[in-house]
Amino acid sequence: MLEISVCNKQYKIKQNIDNLLSVLWYIKENINNSLTFRSGCKSGVCGSCSVVVNGIETLSCQTVVQNNDIVEPLKNYNNIRGLVVDNSYQNALLIDTNSQLQLCNNDKVTSKDQSTIDKESSCILCNSCYSSCPVFSVNKNFIGPFALVRAYRYIEDKKESNKEIIINSIQENGVFDCTLCGNCNMVCPALIDIKGDILRLQNKSVQHGYSNPQMLGGFSPDWL
């Protein structure tokens, strides 16, 4: 028998189920029909079922449940009900950071060019990076990991002719506010190098005349 805590309530599961999302459905259908959670593709693609298990962000559809696991909603968000949080601000972040093509040119894009931004394009909007982010936990105006990665994706896009407008948009509460702790990398199901992308964004910002307050005189090392 499996014992699990979901939203501070203890449940005993008598069925032989090892997938967390399946356990949540079992609880809803057999024990507590008021349990609320998000579920979509069930294949780790849509990102809608992200939760916190034993303090670590994960996709419930991809998680093998263990006895005495503690399941909670994502951190740093307003809780709507159960395991469902309000993540409606995402579209506003993309608008604020101008994270889309601003001025498309006619340059030919090769498969090699595309490969440089493929990983950044694979974000599934699970919000795990924001839940794990210590800066976002104390500053809700922080642009944050997802939006910065999306900004980097378009700055690196060969078809973008106006990269400066994106770089200008990620300065306030943005790229230099990141502590580079790497929490986002550890919880990203798409395995995006978020910390590395933000480091490269800092370097590009310095190249465009912005100063990194953590580096004397705005110096940025050549290896970034």
Automatic annotation (TrEMBL):
Cofactor: [4Fe-4S] cluster; [3Fe-4S] cluster; [2Fe-2S] cluster
Keyword annotations of the record: 2Fe-2S, 3Fe-4S, 4Fe-4S, Iron, Iron-sulfur, Metal-binding, Oxidoreductase, Tricarboxylic acid cycle
Pfam assignment, any one: Fer4_8
GO biological process: respiratory electron transport chain; tricarboxylic acid cycle
Every 4Fe-4S ferredoxin-type domain range: 113-143, 168-197
Span of domain 2Fe-2S ferredoxin-type: 1-77
MF annotations from Gene Ontology: 2 iron, 2 sulfur cluster binding; 3 iron, 4 sulfur cluster binding; 4 iron, 4 sulfur cluster binding; electron transfer activity; metal ion binding; succinate dehydrogenase (quinone) activity
Pathway as given in its UniProt record: Carbohydrate metabolism; tricarboxylic acid cycle
EC number(s) stated in the UniProt entry for this protein: 1.3.5.1
Sequence similarity: Belongs to the succinate dehydrogenase/fumarate reductase iron-sulfur protein family.
Entry-linked PANTHER family: SUCCINATE DEHYDROGENASE [UBIQUINONE] IRON-SULFUR SUBUNIT, MITOCHONDRIAL (PTHR11921:SF29), SUCCINATE DEHYDROGENASE IRON-SULFUR PROTEIN (PTHR11921)
This protein's name: succinate dehydrogenase
The organism of origin for this protein: hydrothermal vent metagenome
